[in-house]
From TrEMBL:
Protein name: CYTH domain-containing protein
CDD domains: CYTH-like_Pase_CHAD
Organism: Inhella gelatinilytica
Residue intervals of the CYTH domain: 3-201
Pfam families xref list: CYTH
PROSITE patterns to which the protein is assigned, alphabetical: CYTH
Recorded superkingdom: Bacteria
Length: 229
């Protein structure tokens, strides 16, 4: 299924982790989901250089194959997800599953070298569906590691994913969490961090603080109000 993924990603400082975790656990529908993903690219990083990402991820017992395109703006990107079979081991990539995602299928067809595993992630996700007034949001607290070339990076972030309705309530929620817990805007996707790590680099964290994060949220709020947004 192809859709536009729109989410706000916030880094959770160590000092705030306990409070954020406890708050999410108290919300109706909260559940924990172990996830393990392998990301694929060619030896020449053809997908990453074009802004694309391809992964196979185990979500509980189910495998999901996902192809993501380049960012459309600060908050969104095209995404095509295909459920795979329940399996104890990772299934083989099946690129034909993305034939309905025309732009992505064309990118895959144009690759000059074979796809190989490049990095992996191990994440414990605390997921909470949250119906807001005029908006549906799914919150996901991700804790875990990115692995590549014998090196690892820690993941500790909260994703607020828009599902339906108005964008304003999502921004209101993000602002409240930033003010209460000191959460910070995290522009680096797991894929971007993993790709850098697979080449022996650590993708530098942005110079962000609470005030700059709030300023960015306000900028997105103004864009959402614009007739051209």
């Amino acid at each position: 299924m192809s859709h536009r993924e729109l989410e706000i990603r916030l880094n959770v400082p160590d000092a705030a982790l306990g409070a954020v975790w406890a708050w999410l656990l108290e919300l109706p529908g909260a559940f924990s989901l172990p996830m393990a993903a392998t990301y694929f690219d060619t030896e020449a990083s053809e997908l990453a250089q074009a802004g694309w990402g391809l992964r196979l991820r185990r979500e509980g017992e189910l495998w999901v194959q996902t192809l993501k395109g380049p960012a459309l703006d600060d908050l969104s990107r095209p995404e095509h997800e295909v459920p795979r079979e329940v399996s104890a081991g990772r299934p083989a990539l099946d690129l034909a599953l993305h034939h309905d995602f025309a732009l992505g299928a064309a990118v895959l067809a144009g690759l000059r070298r074979p796809l190989i595993p490049t990095f992996s992630t191990e994440i414990e996700r605390l997921r909470v569906p949250l119906p807001l007034v005029d908006c549906a949001v799914e919150m996901a607290l991700d804790l875990g590691q990115i692995h590549a070339g014998g090196r690892s990076l820690r993941v500790q972030e909260l994703e607020l994913e828009w599902k339906a309705g108005e964008l304003g309530p999502l921004l209101d929620l993000a602002e409240a969490l930033v003010r209460q817990h000191g959460l910070l805007w995290e522009p680096r996707t797991k894929a971007a961090r993993g790709h850098a790590l697979s080449h022996g680099r650590v993708l530098a964290a942005p110079e962000a603080d609470v005030e700059s994060t709030l300023t960015l949220l306000q900028h997105w709020r103004e864009q959402a109000r614009s007739p051209d947004a």
